[in-house]
From TrEMBL:
Protein keywords: Membrane, Transmembrane, Transmembrane helix
Occurrences of domain CBU-0592-like (ranges): 7-78
Signal peptide extent: none
Domain of life: Bacteria
TM annotation in the entry: 6-25, 32-50, 56-76
Name the record gives this protein: Transporter
């Protein structure tokens, strides 16, 4: 199996785990874990969109990664810090 396929599978799992944990109330969308799972899932799918190039997936996942990174930035720069929002 090619590396891109394996990365795609792991990325999909990361997205589903994040989505499931949030919907079952285990974590919040404002948590570090949720944002990290989304960031790495999006980066993985962005990588898989490079060869062969899939512009729709590439742009969607690149934007998704940027939004997740911004979410982490917000968590780590607020006054109470990330310690209360790890999960």
């Amino acid at each position: 199996m090619e590396l891109a396929y394996e990365i795609g599978i792991v990325s999909g799992v990361l997205f589903v785990v994040a989505f499931g944990l949030m919907n079952f109330g285990v974590i919040k969308a404002e948590s570090v874990l949720y944002q990290v799972l989304n960031l790495f899932g999006a980066l993985g799918f962005t990588y898989t969109a490079i060869q062969p190039f899939n512009p729709g997936l590439f742009v969607t996942e690149a934007v998704w990664a940027i939004v997740a990174a911004f979410g982490l930035y917000k968590i780590f720069t607020r006054k109470n810090g990330p310690e209360r929002n790890l999960a």
